[in-house]
From TrEMBL:
PANTHER family: BIOFILM ARCHITECTURE MAINTENANCE PROTEIN MBAA, DIGUANYLATE CYCLASE DGCP. The chain crosses the membrane at residues 26-43, 49-68. Residues 1-23 are annotated as: Disordered. It comes from Blastococcus carthaginiensis. Pfam families: EAL, GGDEF, PAS_4. Coiled coil: none annotated. This is EAL domain-containing protein.
Amino acid sequence: MRAPDDHDVTTAAPGQPLAASPSGRAAAPASILALVAVVLGTWSAPAPARLLCLGGAAVLAPALFALWRRQARLAGALRTSRAQFTALVRSSADPVVLLDDSLRVTFASPAIAALLGRDPAELPGLPLAHAVHQDDRRTLFATLRTQADDHGELAVRTARIRTGDGGWRLVQATVRDLRADPEVGALVLFCSDVTARREGPDPELLELALTDPVTGLPNRSALVRRLAAVQRQGPAHRASLVLLSVDGAASAGPGAETAVLRALTSRLARELRGEDWLTRGKDGDFVVLVDGGVADAEVVAARLIATLRWLATPAGRLTATAGVTGLAADVDPGEALRRADLALHSARTAGAGSVHRFDDALRSAEDRRSALSTDLAGALARGELRLVFQPVVDVVLQRTVSVEALLRWRHPELGDVSPQEFVPLAEESPLITELSRWVLREACATVAGLPGEELAVAVNVSARHVHSGELVADVVAALGTSGLPASRLVVELTESMLLDSHVADELQTLRGLGVRIAVDDFGTGWSSLAYLAGMPVDLLKMDQHFLADVEHDPQRRALCRGVLQLGTSLGLPVVVEGVTTTGQLALLRDMGHRYLQGYAFARPLEAGQLADGGWPTAVAVGLDAPAGPAVPS
Ligand code: C2E
Ligand code: MG
Ligand code: MG
């Protein structure tokens, strides 16, 4: 292993092995010497041979001289590059340490003196283990002994390192494996001090688990302390946060996920400047403390998201979204992280790859969310919730065959709140199970009480209710008290819920009772034919986004036909949701779609209207079909 010294021009900068070899450098002058030797050696030969030799030399000499000059220039550039690297390593405020195969120090740059209070000249030969806190050895050494990726990248690791006076510093090291590089032949550790600098030695801090065990990055506790330290530097110091949420790593499976996260960490770390600080936040997100304003943070976020395009993993391509916010001096670290979280939420709704910045509008939206959340808890008891029912029409038999029960909330001050807004809020807590249970009871009772009708009723069920393990018991109770036959109840679930094996068991039990299962919003999830074939499913509800522009867009029409064919090949009827215009209605009917639901027939109806028969029980299904009674949805 070669340590970088001032005389050796062959040592490469980490990551940029210098290409020219010593033998290459010597080649041109040697060739000229050889030519001179040949000329001198043939001087005693007969005159014609001498003339021939001199002629050849005259032709070759300019070419060899040019070659020699080029080699000399290359060697000069090499020396300059080497000198620059050496100067860089020596003058860098962040220490660089080289390790051999047995993890002994072979070189430490002068900056190590400021970090650890130790003379760099004393360190070569010492085992790294002597300096690392015993609790941190396992993670650090496991990393140092793993195989690097194609770029020689290993990981970013944080560990407590012993100082010259017996104390500890928290050091973050970006590790590159250049052992295979003949010019370096070492593990290279680019170190930076991540101990909250202004706090001085703090044994309590060091005792805390400040490191994320999977990635080795500082964790949220470390970040919060660092944020407080940065804020103490005053308003003149601009800092901001990027909260990055990466999707897709978990699909690599539990074994491979760790490897994916480590590769991801290396990739992200490589995209950051030395002044920016990469950490692991809660829920597996990444947080970057950016040395700069919020506009800088947006640039950093976009760069991090873009770099994922180049990271191939066993889980396939990863995607990410980010929220950014400035770190104002008057905002405590917890609030700054909440702001970044709000911005991230907003970015998520905009879709993968989005970067959103926190602003006051987001804060108002959050205030509304939390007010609705609080009020929703008592809405059922206060009688603010009710069900409406939207018909599903069979265009062959020309009659309504079922109704979908849809929840409505009239807030005393805010008026009607859409289920798209409050159902997700309810899903964040066990409240959804309570609401779902009420919906089941109410829907079954309403439809069972309709005079002379054999209508089925479809109820939307949330993932949380299924996972509560109470769904089957709640269905049995709702059927029991209402007297509705099980065959007239349809339970609607979304595609993603079917991926859960526990859910499949519950559904199987429900089907055993005679209840039918529908896949709601079909086409918005994974839509895997192979997977669906094995699932306990009775019908598909095609999502309404398929109908957007279907009258004018041939591709959309092909998709609508495709979903119908998919259903037919699986032996499953398809219900088309959101049929709004007579044009769509005509198209779908011509394609062979039989079951349709939407404003073109009826808006969701109040329970009283169902009982009064004021709804299209036997609509004349055609282009001139009258729309159902107008009830706000
Ligand atoms: P969903 O189950 O896919 O319900 C269909 C939605 O499409 C309903 O919106 C319905 O009013 C709307 N819709 C029906 N016909 C048309 C049309 O012709 N054009 C358009 N543009 N829209 C139409 P709604 O009632 O706002 O419900 C939205 C979502 O809220 C539902 O989507 C469902 O996911 C959820 N939801 C509603 N009620 C419940 C419930 O009781 N429990 C659960 N877990 N979720 C519910
Ligand atoms: Mg539905
Ligand atoms: Mg739907």
